[in-house]
Amino acid sequence: RDVVNKSLATFNCIGCHEREGLGGVSPERNEYFVGTKGELGNEGRIPPPLTHVGAKLQQSWIKDVLASGAEQRDYLAARMPRFGEENVGHLAELFEKVDSLEEVQFDKIKSIEEVKLAGHQLVGATGFSCIACHDFNGQKASGPGAMDIIHSTQRLKKDWFYLFLLDPARFRPNTIMPAAWPNGH
Predict the structure, then answer these.
(1) 131 DSSP β-pair partners
(2) pTM confidence score
């Protein structure tokens, strides 16, 4: 953790990102953080927290963000500087080593077709209507237009995603993302 925190302080990542109570946008600089989708609130203008980022993101995605400037939140005006892989490339592996969450046991999939159908129903207009707020495969949402969920499996680890859906506020206090499964059901 010390090496991670030292790196985040050295490159001033904590000037924009918060991690476990360290850093984040200061009140003096808050007004300079803007975005193009005001309806997303702070999530549409403040860079995401780095707390649990090694348990949240695929290591390959973290590497792409750090080394190549990969992004999903095109509505944020703030952009990450490129510090070079030789300077911050070690963070992808370190985040994964120091960040952990409880492990989730998933049922074995018996029919991929049934799972796909259930996914379409849940994400689509007849289920939880995720597409009302999130873009999907380039199609714009009717609502705020939060990040495109088609890339979720490339970016997110499934244990984190499952836990996030059960209780979004656990990972993003004051999030506008609703909890769709009260008490984990």
Answers:
(1) none
(2) 0.91
